[in-house]
Amino acid sequence: MGYTIGEVANKMGVSAYTLRFYDKEGLLPFVDRNKSGNRDFKESDFEWLAVITCLKNSGMPVKKIRQFIDMSMEGDATLRQRLEVFENHKKTVNDKISELNKYMEKIDYKIWYYQTAIDAGSEAIHSQQPCKLVED
User: Fold this and answer.
1) pTM, whole model, 2 decimals?
2) What is the Cα Rg of the chain in Å?
3) 136: pLDDT strictly greater than 60
4) Where is the HTH merR-type domain (predicted)?
5) Which of 22, 84, 108, 127 has the fewest CB atoms below 10 angstroms from its CB?
6) CATH class of 1-74
7) What are the b/e assignments for 13-46, b being 16+ CB within 10 Å?
8) Does residue 33 sit in helix, strand or coil?
9) Boundaries of every domain in the chain
C-alpha cells in the first residue's frame, strides 16, 4: 500500500496543490496510479520529491527541473548530463549566496548604524565619527 497525495503533502511539508502542480508540469512521471486513477506514492518517491523540492527552492525553474527528470527517466545514458545540471546549478546557487552575503553586509552595517545611534541617543553621533562604508 502506498501513500495518498495528502499523506505525502503532510510528510514533505508541501501542499497537495503543489504536488498536483508538479504532476501537471511533468515532474512526477515516476508516481504510479492506483485502480481508481489516484496517485499512489511509494517510499522511493520521497527521494525524488526531496530532489525536486531542493531544486525548486534553490531557484531552478520548473522547466529545467522537468528536463532533469526526463533525463533521469532515460537512465544511465544521461548520467553525465545530469551531473552537469547539478554542477551548473551549484554555480548558480553559489552566485546567489555571494549576492546575499553582500546584502547581509549592508544589513549588518545598518544594524550597527542604528544601534550606535540608539546607544548615543541620536543619529548625530554618526556625523562626529568617520563614515564606516560598505561597498555595494
Assistant:
1) 0.80
2) 23
3) no
4) 1-71
5) 127
6) mainly alpha
7) ebeeebbeebeeeebbeebeeeeeeebbbeeebe
8) strand
9) 1-74, 90-136
